[in-house]
Design goal:
Blueprint (H helix, E strand, L loop, with lengths): L7 H7 L4 E2 L2 H9 L4 H10 L8 E2 H14 L7 H12 L3 H21 L14 E6 L6 H12 L3 E3 H8 L10 H18 L4 E5 L4 H13 L3 E8 L3 H10 L13 H10 L9 E3 L5 H12 L2
Parallel strand pairs: 3-5, 3-6, 4-5, 6-7
Antiparallel strand pairs: 1-2
């Protein structure tokens, strides 16, 4: 493919010389704080990840490929950073992931700035209930039972991701940020209208849980986070390997190795919260406990 045209800020950064020797310095001088995404991406990466020198033509070709991969029609400063990593072989997947995380932060901050829609007939604040846990701990079963009792929608990470698969929208670098942003967007609108919402997600990242809490409270709602576990590993593994969830576009189940990877990534909760152990609690008992925590 032909190289995509340069955005003026990217053109100012690379200049006309045949070799670009200091991308971080060039971007800093060209942007002067005008482009938040590229400047923040550089801050996250640090100068050590942008070593060496790259021929201008090679940099623009690599940046053009990265811009096209992201569906853009111009090469922007952040694409130059991706292109540098691609051309130098210095942690491209890491840089891609950092950019997607940064874009998700910006998008989610906009939902965090929403204000509630006043309703004179509102009887109580809306509630956002997060059912979090690694795969196979019973969070989806509990989320759906709770939604029936609350007459609230369930926003499931897996159902939302499954809908995107036929369009080729998911990649290694964007699946997590995209999933979290979709859940925030769906939940924020319901809460803004004064309606309850149930969220079914792994919730293993502390930042993601805190973000949902923050959005909920800013919109005048009450947040309840519930951690779902299964203390019997044999029971847990049997559930994971024997289930067929029937989610269009998504996996019927995951491997036990995937469950262990998510467990290893789990970030502990800093505040008191209900914990439901599906190895020792019946679904009915777990539901009653969560309803009590929600105040329903």
């Amino acid at each position: 493919m032909d190289d995509l045209p340069l955005h003026p800020s990217a053109e100012a950064a690379v200049g006309i010389d045949g070799v670009v020797r200091d991308l971080a310095g060039a971007l800093a001088g060209a942007l002067s704080g005008a482009d938040g995404i590229a400047a923040e991406l550089l801050d996250r990466l640090g100068a050590d990840l942008l070593p060496g020198a790259v021929a201008r033509a090679d940099l623009l070709a690599a940046a053009s490929l990265e811009a096209d991969r992201l569906g853009d029609v111009l090469v922007r400063p952040e694409h130059l950073v991706l292109g540098w990593a691609r051309a130098t072989g210095s942690g491209l997947e890491h840089v891609r992931g950092e950019l997607q995380g940064l874009m998700a932060d910006h998008a989610q901050a906009r939902y965090g700035a929403l204000r509630p829609v006043p309703r004179a007939d509102a009887a109580r604040p809306p509630r956002a209930v997060l059912l979090a846990g690694v795969p196979g701990t019973g969070k989806s079963t509990l989320a759906e039972a709770l939604a029936w009792r609350l007459r609230a929608p369930v926003f499931s990470m897996d159902w939302q991701l499954g809908a995107l698969v036929p369009f080729g929208a998911l990649r290694l670098d964007n699946t997590g940020p995209l999933a979290e942003t979709n859940l925030i967007a769906s939940s924020a609108r319901q809460l803004q209208l004064g309606l309850d919402v149930v969220v079914d997600a792994t919730g293993h990242r502390r930042e993601a849980r805190d973000r949902l809490r923050s959005v909920t409270e800013r919109l005048g709602g009450v947040f309840v986070g519930v951690e779902c576990v299964c203390s019997d590993e044999e029971v847990h593994r049997g559930r994971v390997e024997g289930r067929a969830r029937g989610i269009p576009g998504w996996h019927e189940t995951v491997s036990w190795e995937h469950v262990l990877r998510v467990k290893a990534l789990w970030e502990s909760w800093d505040e008191p919260h209900p914990v439901v152990d599906s190895a020792v609690e019946s679904p009915g008992s777990a539901l009653l406990g969560v309803l009590a925590a929600v105040g329903a």
